[in-house]
Specification:
The chain is an alpha+beta fold. Helix 3 packs across helix 16. The longest helix is centred in the first third of the chain and has 50 residues. It is globular.
Length: 516
C-alpha cells in the first residue's frame, strides 16, 4: 500500500472512530435525560399521591388565635357544628333562610354584602374556636387542670365516638371521624378538641361557682326582682274556644268551611267558652275549692292547674303574669284574662285565683343522680331490669371509695340523663318549684337527709323512665337566694369570659381554603 493511501486509510479510521464516539456520547446523554425525566415524573407522581392523601393540607395553618396555630381539621369541626345547628333548625321547620338541600357556598345569606352561608358558618366556627382557645389560655396561665370528673367526661366522649363508629358499621373510629368531620380529622385531633372544650367549660363553671355575694347584695337584688323571686300559690283554668275549619259532605269528602262559616262557628265557640269561664270564676269567688271545680269541669276546660306553687320567674311569659305580680292582689281574688289568637281560630280564657304570695325561706337541696333508663314506655320487666342494674351500680360504688367524686365519675359513665352527664349528675338548688318528677323532688327535700345519703327512686314521669340512683350532697340556700346568686354570678362570668376573647383577632392562614 502506498504511503498516501495508508495515510488516507488512517484518517478515515480516525474519523469513523470520532463519529462513533460522538454517537455514544449522544446516546449516553439521552439516557441521562430520560433518567432524569423518569425521576422527575416519579417524584411528581409521589407528590401527587401525597397531595391527594391530604398530607400537606392537613398540616397547614387554617387560623392562628392568640399565638396558637390550628389546622383545617379543628376549624372544620367547629364549622360542622354551626352547619349542623342550622340544618337541624331547618329540618324542624323553624324559619331560617338556610336551605339544607343546597351547598352553603351556593347560598347567599346577606344580599348586601354578598356573604354566603359558607362564609357565615366559617365566621361562626372561628368565633367559637376563639372563645374556647382564649378561655383555655387563661386556664393554663392560672395553672388550672381538668378535674377527675372532667377527664372522665372526655374519656366517655371518646368511648361514645368509638361506639358510634361500631354501630354505624365503620371498621375503626378514624374512618368514622373522617366521615363525620372531614378527611383531615384524626382521633388524636378529635380528642384534643374535646379536651379543650371540656376544659373551657369546667374552668368557666368553676370560676362562676367561686364567686360570692354578701347578704346585702342579695337582698338588694331581691328588692329589684320580687316578681321573679317570690313564690306564688294560685290556680288557673284554661277554657279554650277553637273550631274545626273543615267539614265532611254527604259523600264523605272533606270540605273547607267558608270564611263566613268559620267566623260564625268561632263566635259561637267563644260565647260558650266565655260562659264556662264566668261560671268557674263565680264559683271560685263564692268559695268553691279549685280542685273540686277542676273535676266538675274536666270535660269543658282545656287544662287546669290547681293549688300550685311557682316562683314568679316560671310564669313570667304567661298572659296572667301581670295580674299575679300586682302587689295589690289579695288572697282569694279571681280574674279572667283573655288571649286572642283569632288568626288561627283559637281564643283562650284564663280563670285565675291567687291564694298567697311570699318569699320562701325553705332550704333547697344539692344532689347528684344517675338515671338508669328502662325506656320511654317500659314494661314491668324492663323496670325490674333497670332497678337491678341501678342497685348493682350502687353496690359497686359502695364497695369502693364511696365518696362524691367517685359517684360523679360513675354518673358521667352511666347516666341516661344527658342534661347532667357533664356535671357528674349534679343538680343544685332543688326546690318544690324546680319542675322535677314528684318522687325525685320528695327524696331530695326529705328533712331527714344527710350529706352522703343514697337511695333509689323510680321515675315514671318523664320521657326517659327508669330508676334514679340518688346521692345527697347537702342543703343549700332558699330558692330565691340561689336564683339571685346564679343570676349575678352568670352575668359576671359572661363579662369575664367576654373580656378574655373580645378584641382577639384570629389570623387566617392558607389552610382556611381546605375548610368546606
Amino acid at each position: 500500500m502506498s504511503a498516501s493511501r495508508e495515510k488516507k486509510t488512517r484518517q478515515g479510521s480516525t474519523y469513523a472512530q470520532r463519529r462513533n464516539n460522538k454517537a455514544e456520547e449522544k446516546s449516553s446523554r439521552m439516557h441521562v435525560v430520560y433518567g432524569v425525566v423518569g425521576v422527575v415524573i416519579a417524584i411528581l407522581a409521589v407528590a401527587l399521591l401525597v397531595w391527594d392523601s391530604g398530607f400537606f393540607q392537613k398540616r397547614t395553618t387554617a387560623v392562628t388565635i392568640g399565638g396558637e396555630d390550628f389546622t383545617p381539621a379543628t376549624v372544620q369541626f367547629y364549622y360542622n357544628s354551626a352547619y349542623s345547628y342550622y340544618m337541624s333548625m331547618a329540618q324542624m321547620g323553624y324559619t331560617t333562610d338556610f336551605d339544607a338541600s343546597l351547598d352553603p357556598k351556593d347560598q347567599v345569606k346577606d344580599e348586601e354584602s354578598g356573604e354566603t352561608w359558607h362564609d357565615y358558618f366559617l365566621d361562626q366556627a372561628i368565633e367559637s374556636l376563639t372563645q374556647v382557645t382564649m378561655i383555655n389560655h387563661s386556664a393554663q396561665e392560672a395553672g388550672y387542670t381538668l378535674s377527675t370528673v372532667g377527664q372522665a367526661y372526655v374519656d366517655q366522649a371518646m368511648e361514645q365516638a368509638q361506639q358510634s363508629a361500631r354501630s354505624s358499621g365503620y371498621s375503626n373510629m378514624e374512618s368514622y371521624l373522617r366521615a363525620k368531620y372531614g378527611s383531615y380529622m384524626t382521633a388524636k385531633i378529635y380528642e384534643e378538641i374535646v379536651t379543650a372544650q371540656v376544659t373551657a367549660t369546667y374552668y368557666e363553671t368553676d370560676h362562676q361557682n367561686g364567686l360570692t355575694y354578701s347578704d346585702e347584695e342579695l337582698e338588694s337584688y331581691y328588692q329589684e326582682n320580687k316578681n321573679s323571686l317570690d313564690t306564688f300559690n294560685f290556680s288557673v283554668f284554661t277554657v279554650q274556644a277553637s273550631i274545626e275549619t273543615t267539614t265532611t259532605d254527604e259523600e264523605g269528602n272533606t270540605v273547607d268551611l267558608t270564611d263566613e262559616e268559620k267566623q260564625a262557628a268561632f263566635d259561637t265557640a267563644k260565647t260558650e267558652a266565655q260562659a264556662t269561664a264566668q261560671e268557674i270564676q263565680n264559683k271560685l269567688a263564692a268559695g268553691s275549692d279549685a280542685a273540686d271545680l277542676a273535676e266538675e269541669y274536666s270535660e269543658k276546660v282545656y287544662s287546669a292547674s290547681v293549688h300550685q306553687s311557682q316562683m314568679g320567674s316560671s310564669f313570667s311569659k304567661s298572659d296572667y303574669a301581670e295580674w299575679l305580680y300586682d302587689a295589690a292582689r289579695q288572697s282569694g281574688e279571681t280574674t279572667i284574662v283573655e288571649n286572642d289568637d283569632s288568626a288561627n281560630y283559637v281564643y283562650n280564657y284564663y280563670v285565675v285565683q291567687i291564694e298567697s304570695r311570699q318569699r320562701d325561706e325553705a332550704a333547697t337541696a344539692d344532689i347528684r343522680h344517675i338515671l338508669v333508663s328502662a325506656g320511654s314506655n317500659p314494661t314491668d320487666e324492663q323496670f325490674a331490669q333497670a332497678e337491678e342494674r341501678a342497685q348493682s351500680l350502687l353496690d359497686s360504688w359502695k364497695s369502693g371509695s364511696a365518696d362524691e367524686e367517685s359517684f360523679a365519675v360513675m354518673a358521667v359513665e352511666n347516666t341516661a340523663d344527658t342534661g347532667s352527664q357533664s356535671t357528674g349528675g349534679l343538680y343544685t338548688g332543688v326546690s318544690p318549684y324546680s319542675g322535677y318528677v314528684e318522687d325525685f323532688t320528695n327524696w331530695c327535700l326529705d328533712s331527714s337527709r344527710q350529706p352522703g345519703d343514697t337511695g333509689l327512686v323510680k321515675n315514671t314521669g318523664s320521657s326517659t323512665q327508669g330508676w334514679h340512683i340518688m346521692y345527697f350532697v347537702g342543703w343549700n340556700d332558699p330558692a330565691w337566694k340561689v336564683t339571685a346568686k346564679n343570676t349575678l354570678a352568670s352575668a359576671a362570668t359572661q363579662e369575664w369570659v367576654s373580656g378574655l376573647y373580645d378584641g382577639v383577632e384570629a389570623q387566617r392562614g392558607s389552610g382556611i381554603n381546605y375548610v368546606k
